[in-house]
Amino acid sequence: MYxxxxxHDGSATGTKKTGFGNNWVVVGLLxxxxxxxxxxxxxxxxxxxxPKASASKVDLARELVGLLLAAFPxxxxxxxxxxxxxxxxxxxxxxxxxxxCRMRRTGVLYDHAPPPTGRRGRPARKGxxxxxxxxxxxxxxxxxxxxxxxxxxxxxxxxxVSGLW
Length: 165
What we know:
Elements: E1 5-8, E2 18-21, E3 23-31, E4 40-49, H1 57-71, E5 77-80, E6 97-100, E7 109-110, E8 129-131, H2 133-139, E9 143-149, E10 152-158
Parallel strand pairs: 5-6
Antiparallel strand pairs: 1-2, 3-4, 7-8, 9-10
């Protein structure tokens, strides 16, 4: 099988969590259908990821998102990826896109970069240190929201912090 390799498989049994097979980076569109109560995700683009032989999964995802953005120039996109999909390749997304993924527990947030000062030297690329998710959660203002999860309304507590990871 072309492109098959030993790689992480979260659904594998045992302690090693590895499996032999293909690994695909897939972009799907969330589509409401009139005969279903909730929308479904239809895959529209995919690339085969091969360990040590192709670009990273994040780079492939960014490439696919770029194709989607070019196909729909007037649309806004709310993109979601799992914990593996974060990195520098996503830092140049246009303002009509948001990218949501799970942040690492040890990740550190910084404030947005201040405007250039006009003085010599490279301008700052990030602002003040905001802290880790645990530190931010301790001081954040959580707001109660009703959210629909799997067809049920539940209460969730949400805090929003804007910054650079």
